[in-house]
UniProtKB/TrEMBL annotation:
Belongs to the small GTPase superfamily. Rab family. GO terms for biological process: protein transport. It comes from Enhydra lutris kenyoni. Keywords: Endosome, GTP-binding, Hydrolase, Lipoprotein, Nucleotide-binding, Prenylation, Protein transport, Transport. This is small monomeric GTPase. NCBIfam families: small_GTP. Pfam families: Ras (PF00071). It is a lipid-anchor.
Amino acid sequence: MTSRSTARPNGQPQASKICQFKLVLLGESAVGKSSLVLRFVKGQFHEYQESTIGVKFEIWDTAGQERYHSLAPMYYRGAQAAIVVYDITNQETFARAKTWVKELQRQASPSIVIALAGNKADLANKRMVEYEEAQAYADDNSLLFMETSAKTAMNVNDLFLAIAKKLPKSEPQNLGGAAGRSRGVDLHEQSQQNKSQCCSN
């Protein structure tokens, strides 16, 4: 379906456009990537999606296929955001997270927003990765950083919200007269799915 540049036939302005961003999750198996996504989607996703931020994430999860590392560049090609997840109770997963960050910095889009998530914060009594160590690493590499818990929902929505706020906004394209109304990138006509407000403050 082609994009229209001004008002739609029913007189509705283009504020119903959705700004869609590809977001990938990276990290070792069993650190909780899928659980974070499920918690976000089942939690307050609809409330969040219909907020004034108007961002829709196209979330790509490896679903346990990390061993196919050679395919990773195809997986994160075109991604505007990435969440690199480690388990705070497992130092090895933190080391592996650093490797993923380096790879993204080397091969992904230069403008990609990278967030580091220390998951399983509900198991703080078994902590092997100190918060300060991860925060210092994130600061040195210009990453967003939060400790999260898919189990308790701690910081899960906040993590996605922080990413949405950092996504680069560019001049909208092919929007004609609606240019002053909408901000964002990757605007697509979603046909039946135009239920969310996009980028209108």
